[in-house]
């Protein structure tokens, strides 16, 4: 295994651990019918390198194992994150204009998590489906698009060589 591969695996493991730790540490706002999962900001890393899809998905899986919503969340929550980060990655791959495309990519978690997690929470908490979808979508939009995109752009502008925003050899 090359040093580059080992380095990328270590970065993905750190991303997984950070995602799970931040989610669990902020559990009161990370789980439940209304959620602002701050760790979701990290899903934007998949825009820059698809290699992070694995780390983000595993981090979500671990966070959902630790969370209060059981097997349903472990399966559907992890699926929602995987679908979202895969769509973000595809948007990054196909992007001609990286700046505008980051905003577009940030909307995938709003859509997919709103639908998948919203449906799951309706099942778990017996709340109206449209309300649940709207609450999850709003939380994702606030965390990923409103807060996450400016943070990513700030870090990119301030630290031009920030290693997490370097596209790997995955494509």
Automatic annotation (TrEMBL):
InterPro entries: QueT
Any Pfam family: QueT
Segment forming the signal sequence: none
Record's keyword terms, sorted: Membrane, Transmembrane, Transmembrane helix
The name this protein goes by in its record: QueT transporter family protein
Domain of life: Bacteria
Transmembrane segments: 12-31, 43-65, 71-90, 102-125, 137-155
Source species: Clostridium neuense
